[in-house]
Amino acid sequence: MVFSFRSFVTALAATTLFVSDSVQGRQLKKKEIHAKQVEAARRFQSSAAVRREAAKTLNFSSPAAQKFFVDGKSIPDVDFDVGPSWSGLLPISGDKNETRELFFWFFPPGPQGSTDDLIFWTNGGPGCSSLEGFLQENGPFSWSTGTAHPVPNQFSWTNLSSVLWVEQPVGTGFSQGKPNIKNEDDLAAQLVGFLQQFLLVFPELKGKKLYLTGESYAGTYVPYIANYIYEHPGALDLNLQGMWISDPSLSFDVVQEQIPAVNFVHKYENVFSFNQSFMAELDKLNDKCNYTGYMDKFVTFPPKGPLPLPNGSTRTPKGCDLWDTIFNAALIVNPAFNIYRIFDTFPVLWDVLGFPGSFENEQTPLYFNRTEVKKAIHAPLDVDWKECSDIDVFPHGDGSLPPAFSVLPSVIEKNNRTVIVHGLADFILIAEGTRIVIQNMTWHGQQGFQTPIANDSFLVDGVGALGTTHTERGLTYYEVELSGHMVPQYSPVAAFQIMQYLMGFRDKP
């Protein structure tokens, strides 16, 4: 090929520019990157209260309370004072022969917190420990995945009010006794029985405004507990105000996992990294199983009527378990694929609780299995603590209907405020499935939300738009970008702000 002189000069100039750009390309030093991150973090954290050593004064007059006292300077590996707290086992009834006990850890509010309120938190499972929520989500100190040692949690919910973490039902964590519950009403009765015993030891907490909170299968627990309290006025000397349920189990798996599964993969194609032939096969199965187009056709604002099950059954038809098909394929591409937050990749960071997926670097023994930790928090020394129990806390299964078809609508009507929260990077329970649940549910005389959920409508202090939010008739729904299943862990600033709204400390969602 023959070049003209002009062509040669043009080509040379282009090459010179390319070399120049390469030589003078972006070269950020690590300290410059870190400085930008620190400044961003300051903006991100500006709205949070930081728990200090001092706590609001709560003096408990009962001598029985003293045996539960935990010195905030004596918690193993925590090299700062987290302030006073109380923990241990209490029975689920006043029966002198009662052998069933639940483990709790109670913290009073930090300096900015309210002494008029009490937040109750439970994890789900069923059978997963609320100490996971305590240590990695909303407790006063945090030891999360990949963290070298515990750090103060500036987004602790103790910066809002007193918080009570309870390992329940019987069979969970350090809790004692043989599980015997048949359904959610049994669970609620035992939990309320425990709370009655708790208030006998800590009577100064009687009459406080109560907020029931939890995640995952606690999306079933919490509405039933609230319903039990409303149906048994006078049984509990606390004033129930509202509830938080995040990434909640509210309906059938076909609704919350199967229908939205392929849509979810398409939304995050670059994360799943499936090849095109497999994606085509998923789309064919989606068509065959009558999941394709379900959201566009049926999830309307307002709803056009009751939302149908795709194949007329609450069970997943044979050959239509697309969720498991996707999960198994995802593990081939990425052995550390995390259904709780899909952004994790192999190798995973180590986790002081050994979950989820930290198979390469799991601490042994787990933090709550260490003898010195058990002694510090008055936990039974002979229990082999696991984050999620190996035994069935419902020995013969949970006989209750999902709460969306039973108690949830009436509880929303009785609460001052109810929030349902969903992390958008959660695959085990998918946000589109929660939208289906809401649009198929009737409360205060109307079905679902009447007007659409606006994009970018959830504005987080210091961040800007971080998802969506929508409020109608006492129910506020949030979707949180970047967050997985455990919203207070993966998006603590958003979770803190949502709790402020639930408790009336913010006027708007």
UniProtKB/TrEMBL annotation:
Coiled-coil region list: none
GO MF: serine-type carboxypeptidase activity
PROSITE patterns: CARBOXYPEPT_SER_SER
SUPFAM superfamilies linked to this entry: alpha/beta-Hydrolases
Keywords: Carboxypeptidase, Glycoprotein, Hydrolase, Protease, Signal
Biological process, per Gene Ontology: proteolysis
Enzyme Commission number(s) from the entry: 3.4.16.-
Pfam family, one: Peptidase_S10
Domain of life according to the entry: Eukaryota
Stretch forming the signal peptide: 1-25
InterPro entries, per the entry: AB_hydrolase_fold, Peptidase_S10, Ser_caboxypep_ser_AS
Keyword Repeat: no
Protease found in the keyword field: yes
Family: Belongs to the peptidase S10 family.
Name of the protein in its database record: Carboxypeptidase
Organism encoding this protein: Agrocybe pediades
